[in-house]
Amino acid sequence: MSEAIMLKRATYHLWTFTISKLISSFGAQVYAFAISFYILQITGSATNFATNLICSILPRAIMAPFAGYVADRYSRKTIVIGAQIATTLAIGGLLTVSIVSGLSLIAIYTTTVILSITSTFSGVTFTSSITGLVDEKRIQRAMSMNQMSISFAAIASPAVGGLLYGTVSMPVFLMIFMAASITAVILESTMNFKLFAKRKEVVEGEPKESMLQSMKAGFSYLKLQSVLMTIIWISLVINFLFGAFQVGYSFILIEKMKMGAAHFGITEGAQAVGMVIMSIYLSVRKELKYPLLVGKWGIVSMGIVMGAVALPLLLKMPYNGIFAFYTILMFSFGVLMIFVNTPMQVMMQKMIDDDYKGRVFSILETMAIALMPLGMVLFGFLYDVLPAEWILMTSSVVLILVVLIMARPSIVRKAHPELDKTQAVKVEAVQEQ
């Protein structure tokens, strides 16, 4: 296949991948919104609502390592399409139950578990396939467009979910989700996952690794990649400490500031808007030159924003001023999230060998999923016993210090050796003057 045809095909992948992700993310989030609303409306029980959340989170943590092994061992196209077909069948099953006997909590929980498992396999495999679908120069664009579709779905899904829930019956709602899922299957089936892939061919007669051996090999590979390990540890620290932000933000605005539901929703939406705008910007600009350096200072800025959430607790501000302050703060936070995530993800895509991508990304996802609820539970307890401003400011300082230590200049230079050359050229230029 000629280079021109491959690049044309990569452009097709770029748009197909984005549209497919948008449809599947949008459908999943609208479904999650409607089912959560349905459970609360029918049962009025927070326990039933929480059980559905557990059915969504727990299978992801358990199945992510298996998803990584499968993504590295078998055809990634088959896994992605198979997962999407399983999603369609699960929704079809719930639709059948709703028509025949009416929705039950057991049917909803079972469907949620299946959807969680299929999204884990699809998500890990799709992330592992980026470098096989698009050329190296457009990896940043692919990651930005992927994030843009997820952010757009996050903005629009509550509104669309609320509108549909109020105007159509649950069976019609499920039919719409099924149609979206089938569309995603059709789009994914037209993609060539091996276009730029650099995976090793399986040799006939070669002894096969067991799942345990394969996962051990993934950990061994990670240990040899010091820069990659630094990025992963930073990601895990962020996921844990952001429990302080996630719990504290809602607690401060609703409980301490007594902010109205509509205004609170606008501040939350401002974050998604910031994410979309930054995703669009990164999708059209050239690739950032020093992603770890960019990520380092982006995370420091996020730490400052986290600490700033406590500012209205320390300074007297009028209600409108508080609303405007938090709207700007959340918009900035959304911008920074993409500014940090996209370059780091691009760097990881380029650093990790194709044969290990599934396992590495699944290890990262498993640890992140495990740490996030832990962080939220811990900080939820702390907010009940300690002043909110001190929790946020302490978490902010710890985050900044951890990043400055873990991404110290020697590590950044290890990731970007060209920085030494650039500095050497500058020194020579000064000496010549």
UniProtKB/TrEMBL annotation:
Compartments where found: Cell membrane
Alphabetized InterPro entries for the sequence: MFS, MFS_trans_sf
Predominant place of localization: membrane
SUPFAM superfamilies according to UniProt: MFS general substrate transporter (SSF103473)
This protein's record includes keyword Membrane: yes
GO CC annotation, single: plasma membrane
Segments passing through the bilayer: 12-40, 46-67, 79-100, 106-127, 148-166, 172-191, 221-242, 262-282, 294-315, 321-340, 360-382, 388-407
GO molecular function: transmembrane transporter activity
Membrane-topology descriptor: Multi-pass membrane protein
Record's keyword annotation contains Membrane: yes
UniProt KW keywords: Cell membrane, Membrane, Transmembrane, Transmembrane helix, Transport
Annotated protein name in UniProt: MFS transporter
